[in-house]
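Write out the bound-state structure for pyridoxal-5'-phosphate.
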Amino acid sequence: MKSTLQTTDPAVFKIIQRETERQEFGLEMIPSENYVSEAVLEANGSVLTNKYAEGLPGKRYYGGCHVVDEIEDLARERCKQLFGCEFVNVQPHSGATANQAAYESVVSFGDTVMGMRLDQGGHLTHGSPVNFSGRNYKIVAYGVRQSDQQVDPDEVRSLALQHRPKLIIVGASAYPRRFDFAMFRKVADEVGAILLADIAHYAGLVAAGAYPSPIQHCDIVTTTTHKTLRGPRSGIIMAREAHAKAINKSVFPGLQGGPHMHTIAAKAVAFGEALRPEFKDYARRIIENAQTLAAELQRLGFTIVSGGTDSHLLLVDLRPADITGKDAEKALDAVGITVNKNTIPFDPQPPTVCSGIRMGTPALTTRGMNQADMKSIASFIREAIDARGQENKLNSVRDKVRSLSSRYPLYRDRLVRE
Ligand SMILES: *Cc1c(COP(=O)(O)O)cnc(C)c1O
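---
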């Protein structure tokens, strides 16, 4: 591939080359990551980055917006078609920003908000004390049951009745199971709360019909676009028409300045890809791969939180394997398998150490990997964890990882051989 950077800025070029190589020859198993298409990369790297377009299509604060207006309209139309939502704002720069804007459109400083505990699967923006959400609102947190590590409807309902939150958030970053959005709707109605689903992790699966859709049950639905949805790093807010005005205002001028039109173009491309029939098959294979990986890891002696998965991700409880999440992350990194340490429900370890690792299959499935590959990967994971600290054995696992990933070319044309 022709590169300008290679001659104008070799320092940056070389770093990008090394990262391309890392992605090409490693096994990316962080469930929030994915590999976007060349088409998404092209739109994201386009001249649309040059354009200021504060405001909304047809109502901008800058001249010269008639062309970029079309890209934002296209992104909005495709998104509505994809998720079946009444309204969408495609301008949020990221998932966290989408959540902040969504909060600000419906609750005020000091209001009570209910969300899932961070250490049991929730996201920082669902009420963590180190985040704006925990600082600005009174947070009530629900978790999972000790018995099966799944959300307990009775706990959700009794906490809601006791604290009468103005906003209830359903969604997570490390919850492998299906959320019962209808149950959350019932509880929200009982206490007169607004219901927001944050489907950052599940969005691609939802779009493809492989995971339940919250759209008909929720007032507002936020998501990132770069996880299972396989678009550029960004966010969107979908909602019922009644919230449209407030959401538009809280995104701009409430929180952001000019929208990133190049990213919006890349979102339009990703939505277009997700509307194709192949994407349904992709989402189905993501889950099939995650379930095969979970079953195979169990067969090899690992404990899977909640006993399995209904989605793209799984959590391994490493306590029986006698290794911490931190050390397992390191051992796997050493062989080219990228995961992240994660707390498991009721984790005895602090979040800097963790008793678990979280892994997912969206990126591997994008490469075309299948159930047989998942079985191989489970065995690589077993071997790497058992061989931690033993350089020779780790080297041999690293070779196997590299040879598997080499069979599934990704961005091969972007690698320049010197
Ligand atoms: C990833 C994630 C976010 C935040 O997205 P960023 O783009 O990293 O800001 C928000 N909510 C949930 C549930 C997530 O998993």
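---
The chain is about 45% helix and 15% strand.
The longest strand covers residues 112-116.
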